Amino acid sequence: MLPLKSIGFLMMFFGLCSTSLFIPILGVANYMMVYQIAPEHTWWYKPIAHLGIRYSMTSAVCMMFGMVLCLPRLPRCKPMINVWDIAAVFLLSVVVLGDITGLPPSPISSQLTEKYVKMMVFVFCMTRLAVTKRNLTIVIWTLVLGSLYIGYDAWTAPRGAFAHGRLEFIGGPDFRHSSGLAAHMAAMLPIIGACFMTTKPWKFRAVAAAAGALTVNTVILCRTRSAFIGLGVGAVVALLLAPKRMRMKTYGAIIVAGICAYALTDAAFWERMATLSDRDALNADKSAMGRLDIWKAAGEIMTEYPMGVGIGNFAYTMQKTHPHIGRRAAHNTFVLCFTELGLQGLVFLLVIVTSSFYCAWKSIQIADRTHDPTWTRFMGYGFILSMVIGLSAQMFTERLYTEAFWWILALPTCLHRVAIRETEEKRFALIHGRFANIQSWQAAAPSIAPYPARGAFA
């Protein structure tokens, strides 16, 4: 008899695989849930391991088959190609051509290249499907439920999941270390908060609240200074950019969340965070000083190889050129990008990041012309904070080749397409139709407005 968790996972997986052939956005949700659950790292995976299913690949294939089968019914994507897409394609070409422009490939270069190509194929599919409010809401709530699962997994983690008092080995391959896990979960908090603020049904608000509490608890258990810095920067930006029409409610939610988060901390957490303001403790910290040595050495490598050393070659090049440092990670997403992908790679990455912020900000500006201004405004606000927290934390950890990092960067362009789509539909209905206002249009033209201003999730 299979464990209930194994049965539940298989039912979810095969159910979403089959329905994604007719509703492709569910294939996106299926892929994202498999990534966050990471069944191969769970105890309940052993009874079903003999099935030999590659869950991520299967869900992605079903999603793409669904896109082909439903091609005439896919939502219109406008603009079809934007600056974000162009920069992402150029960055992908830099990664693929890294073996030519950089040093001979390392043992992990081909694996990372293959992973990066797969990541970008999925991201391009997601940014073509999540262009309606309903579809984007499904993607956002998939992240919320995934955070809820990871948070519960961290809350119930055994002592063996901790190393030197820090939570490790939770979640998928991109979350196996505390720094990566904390950076991801910290970036999820604004998205969870945006869902909580824009959701009316109390059941969904309860889910968002539980996900937020468990996510905060996971960040605390990781005890990483990078995530703490990211949350600190995010808190300042959150207070400055709070939506005007709901500013007091937003401030109240941030204060309550901060008090609850403080209640979850312990003395060990604050002892580690205190090293950020203690110069002597910071100088004595091998981890912090090691980062400085790595970044100095990386600067020398950048000067010698401005075109980059090639994907997957950072640690091996560091070992050869600076043997006293050894084979070490970059501990900085932008340093890793510049060193491995060269100046051109860093430029394209910065264009992508800038475009993501622009799309989120532009969505907020035109929110009043969409079906649900509050939802659009808060999602743009949440995406900006998520990127601020994530990128701030990534100044001390590397997330360049992790899928969730690209999901967060892709969400604003999806929101922007949703906002543009709804703005044009509203303008068409009001100017060329017989409706004098948005309320009469929504009531009489369900084919143009397939969802009300406040649906099940928002």
How many H/I helical runs?
Answer: 19
Number of domains: 2
Give the overall form: globular
Q: Strand percentage, roughly?
A: under 5%
Which sheet architecture does the biggest sheet show? 2 strands, antiparallel
Whole-number mean pLDDT: 86
Q: How far is it from the N-terminal to the C-terminal residue, by CA?
A: 40 Å
Oligomeric category: single chain
Order of strands in the sheet with most strands: 1-2
Poorly predicted segments: 444-458
**Computed Rg:** 22 Å
| Strand runs, count | 2
Helix fraction bin: 55-70%
Content-based structural category: mainly alpha
Order of helices and strands: HHHHHHHEEHHHHHHHHHHHH
Summarize the structure in short.
The protein has helices at residues 4-20, 24-37, 55-69, 83-96, 98-101, 109-129, 133-155, 178-198, 202-222, 225-240, 247-264, 267-274, 279-284, 286-304, 314-321, 333-365, 373-393, 403-432, 438-444, and strands at residues 162-163, 166-167.
Report on this model:
This protein has 458 residues and is an all-alpha fold. The chain folds into 2 domains: 1-74; 75-444, no CATH class. Helices cover 69% and strands 1% of the residues. The protein has helices spanning 4-20, 24-37, 55-69, 83-96, 98-101, 109-129, 133-155, 178-198, 202-222, 225-240, 247-264, 267-274, 279-284, 286-304, 314-321, 333-365, 373-393, 403-432, 438-444; strands at 162-163, 166-167. A two-stranded antiparallel sheet has the order 1-2. It is globular, with a radius of gyration of 22 Å.
